[in-house]
Amino acid sequence: MSAGGSLETRDRRESWHAALHRLQESGTPHALASVVSAAGSTPREPGAKLIITPTDVIDTLGGGHFEQQVIEIARQHLATTPVSSGTYLEAFPLGGRSGQCCGGFVHVLIEVFVGAESHLTLFGAGHVGQALVELLAPLPWRIDWYDSRAEAFPFQNEQENGHDHDHEGYPARVRPMRLSPDAEGVARAVAAIPPASHVLIMTHDHAQDRDLIAALLSPENPGREALNSIGMIGSKSKWASFRSRLIAAGFDDAALARVRCPIGLGATETKRPREIAISVAAELLAQSRPSNRPAQRGIAPETLRHTFSAARHRATRP
C-alpha cells in the first residue's frame, strides 16, 4: 500500500535502467533511490536501485517496511507543486527506524527528477516550427505541438485521444496534437496549457494566430497569468495590425504587452527557417534560465562528512 492507502503498480519485468530511460524520454516526474552504503544484515547490497513515480514502483530495494519508507519519502518530494529536482541522503537503522529484525544500517540516496525542465506549447508545424522542435527535442523540454493540418507534422500521423503517435526520431516528451481550428477547439487547446509554460504561435493562418492570441489573453482563460511567456512569429507590421484589432475587441494595453512579436533575439538578414528557429530557441533558453538557483546544490557537505564519519565508526567498531 502507498502512503495514501491506494494500491501502487509494481512492474516486475521492467528493469530500473529501462524505466529511468523511459521516464526521462517522456518527461515524467520520477525519483531514483539507490543504496549507497550498507552495514550488517541488510535486504540489498550497495548499488541496488528503485524507480518511484506517483503511481508506479519499478525494481526493488529488498521490500519490507524499509522500502515502503523510501517510497513514501520519494513521493512526498514528487507531490510538491511544482516538483523540484533535488538529491537527498536518508539513513535507515533497520531495527530502529524501519522496525525490521535484520538490524543492519543502510544509506539511501534519493534523486528527484522533475521530468521536464521547461514546457513549450507550440502552435504551428510549418518550416520554422519543425526546425525549432528539432533544436529543442534533445533538451529536457516537454513540447505540446499543435497544428490543424494532419499532413503538417514531419512524421506519420496516427490519432488516438487527440495525440499523434509513431513520431519516429522524436522523444516521447514531444507530443504532437491536432488542433481543431474552430472556437471550441482553440479554447480547449488553450485550457490544456500547463502553468509556467512558454507559448509560441506560428501557424499557417493569420486568422488562427489572432484567435489563439485572443483566447490566451481572454479574462475567461484562468491560466493566462501563470504563463511564462507568449510569443508570435511575424513582423512589426503584422503585430500592429493584430494589436489594433485586439484593442477594438476590448483588450487593454496591459494584456497586449504580454505578447512578443517579432520573436527571437533579433531579426536575421535572411529568412531561412533554421536561422529563425535558432534565434527563437536562444531567446527561449534565456527566458528559462532560473534566476534564484542556489549556490550550493546537492547534499550539504556537513551531511556527507557526518555520514561517512559515522560509517567509518561502524566499520571499525568491534
Keywords:
318 residues; alpha/beta; Rossmann fold; six-stranded mixed beta sheet; six-stranded parallel beta sheet; 33% helix; 23% strand; disordered N terminus
Percent of sequence in beta strands = 15-25%
Q: At the first level of CATH, what is the class of the largest domain?
A: Alpha Beta
Largest sheet entry: 6 strands, mixed
CATH fold node name of the largest domain:
Rossmann fold
Into how many domains do the coordinates divide?
A: 2
How are the strands of the largest sheet arranged?
1-4-3-2-6-5
How many H/I helices? 9
CATH architectural type of the largest domain: 3-Layer(aba) Sandwich
Explain how this protein is built:
By secondary structure, the protein is of the alpha/beta class. It folds into two domains: 9-115, no CATH class; 118-288, NAD(P)-binding Rossmann-like Domain (Rossmann fold), CATH 3.40.50.720. 33% of the residues lie in helices and 23% in strands. It is built from nine helices and 14 strands. It has a six-stranded mixed sheet with strand order 1-4-3-2-6-5. Strands 11-8-7-12-13-14 form a six-stranded parallel sheet, sandwiched between helices. α3 (127-136) crosses α8 (273-288) and α4 packs across α5 (206-217). The radius of gyration is 24 Å and the shape is elongated. It starts with 8 loop residues before the first strand and ends with a helix.
